Structure of Alpha-1,4 glucan phosphorylase:
Amino acid sequence: MKKMADFDKESFKTEVKNNVKILYRRDIEEATPQMIYQAVAYSVKDDIIDRWIETHKEYKKQNAKKVYYLSMEFLIGRLLGNNILSLGYYPQIKEALEEMGFDMDFIEDQERDPALGNGGLGRLAACFLDSLSTLGYPAYGCGIRYRYGMFKQKIKDGYQYEVPDDWLINGYPFEVKRAEYAVEVKFGGYVRVEQKEGRNHFIQEGYSAIRAVPYDLPVVGYGNNVVNTLRIWDAEASQEFNLESFDKGEYSKAVEQANLARTLVEVLYPNDNHISGKELRLKQQYFFISASVQSAILKFKETNDDIHNLPEKVVFQLNDTHPTVCVAELMRILMDEEGLDWDEAWDITTHSCAYTNHTIMSEALEKWPIELFSRLLPRVYQIVEEINRRFVLKIQELYPGNQDKIKSMAILYDGQVKMAHLAIAGSFSVNGVAKLHTEILKKRELKDFYEMRPEQFNNKTNGITQRRFLAHGNPLLAKWLNENIGEGWITDLSQISKVKVLVDDPKYQQEFMNIKYQNKLRLAKYIKENNGIDVDPDSIFDVQIKRLHEYKRQLLNILHVMHLYSELKENPDMDMYPRTFIFGAKAAAGYKRAKLTIKLINAVADVINNDASIEGKIKVVFIEDYRVSNAEIIVAAADVSEQISTASREASGTGNMKFMLNGAPTLGTMDGANVEIVEEVGAENAFIFGLSADEVMKYEREGGYNPWDIYNSNQNVRRVLTQLINGMYSPDDPERFRDLYDALTKEDIYFILKDFDSYAEAQRRVDAAYRDTSAWARMAMMNTACAGKFSSDRTIEEYVKDIWHLKKIKVDLPKKNTKTK
Ligand SMILES: *Cc1c(COP(=O)(O)O)cnc(C)c1O
């Protein structure tokens, strides 16, 4: 690794100036901030490239086993800052830029977030890549280069508007187009069977072909010279739109292919935990899977000559069911292109694929109509049929005459392809993402599969990278940690437990809370600039940032704010510690109730923030366009972490871990990874409320509960419900929030009213606890100190040990690679 001392500031400055000239034909004095950012990024990329090349030489030399992390989403966040951090000369570049008259934060702000994901699932994939590189494990991330990523959210008049995110508009400096590795992906047509040498050969004809062209992004390991690759695929028209095909009467086919290429990778579907069921989505899935599997096999063959050894060198990890077509595509390649018979191909496939389940919610379970699936992927569908036929035979052998088992486990049923069932049938490992979630999979959702093959199931509790969410996002706390417990935590988060010896010392308590205060000032400035709202940094910053979804219950949070406000209006002398409720959330474009909830939050904010009579005791802020880059700022400034999902619904959550690491106690339900957070930090250092997962699931088995029982018996609930429909927050249209009222009073399937009292009581505990400055500081510090388990480094080590079986590699840089130009 380039030692800090090796960094030559003057040659860096010269390089930046040169890059501005080369890229833009301008002197640096004439350059825009965007140009400076690009010039700096190219200079950093220059250093990355050497490490990238060396890493891949090493892989080849070792013939190393690699994991291919297949994911429709990689929510990587901005790369400039983290890449510099990983290279080890963040302070030096910051200083060099200052000497040139530029502010590092301002330059970093010029980078658009590559928003190639929706939320937690995509962010997890990004944290995993960071950990894989830092730990030195050979890995590829494989995904899609969406032309427009997650939409940008604009709030106008309290409503969400979706604006296309043209993240490539200025060019993305860290990507490298690898046209030489393009492959072809075929859609549609029909399958012709040919007898040759006593074997059936299956040939797809009359198809549309798309050229899949990879763009590689470097994933820079921290301080170890390892650079893995995130390979995202772009689509191009397969053949030149030429006169020849026009003459052959294939003009319309050529147009069709050009159009498909244009639309294929155009957008990321903005649904989180919900299927769109759109044909184009299935095309996207097959497109990036076929390209990724083809390229993995080509790479394998560079250093191996027996395809039977594939499982020793390659493992495909399926991030949710979105990449599940991998199972059938690998079968197709092994049989149709490598000439293996079914049993050989199945043996290889089922020793190469592993599946991660991310949700138990039925609306998120992927099913494709057989009609659509077979029309789009005729050969792959034949293979799925055969997988299903054999799988059903196995079920019948185990459970003779049991039709229910077939109904609950078959891959093809009721005219649909059930992707989770295909993923389980074709994988050697099935994992959940937190202990509670995995137990629910085994006991309920996937019970039949678990009973058939218990050894297939395992848990891998999610994690987050401390490099982004502490070292980069919270530089003040990072510095404090370095000074007091050393730098070991950056690559070994278990060492953060050393903070425990400081938690009772008033000096350290004060330092810790002063850092929190500085971070609150930074966020207050961001809010002032972006929302025009003044918030009080001495108030409690109570934060809920995550996708807007009914199960995450932002509605519970805002109903409680309405309740507090009513209490305060009735009793102006009420003893209440000033609180700033901060929200950030995107709603899927078509998710009406979620969008209405955003409007409600903003309507409540409007009323409360403009009521001088409450003397600023409550403020409500909805931060526009929640994304990775502002998450880093918000998390560092939080006093309270709202993780209030209906128990059993949040598979893990990772936002909860970011807050804990940054010293914000969890106000939450016993759901997902909250359970393990409480296990680590102790119940006395969290604010837990609400129904347990078992209680929720018991109510559900009984057909729900009756919300009117709560309505009738609970004045506070009745009051806020009435405010939803009496125009208090919508004087121009009292009916505006009727749908929310109806959802709560008719079924309340997310148990919001049921949990309301318990939540309000937990909020009172927060209010009381915050007043004891020293006790609160201790609690905040304990959260940081106990966050060691939640590093994605720990998660990755578990994947490696139990599923992937990779070997760490070392990369040494040849001497010449220092910036001494
Ligand atoms: C961490 C993260 C998420 C996931 O948050 P949850 O609270 O676990 O749902 C979503 N979006 C962004 C931008 C994140 O950084």
Observations:
- Residues 656 and 674 are 7 Å apart (CA to CA).
- Residues 33-62 form the longest helix (30 residues).
- Residues 119-120, 123, 546-547, 627-628, 631, 653-655, 658 surround pyridoxal-5'-phosphate (CB under 6 Å).
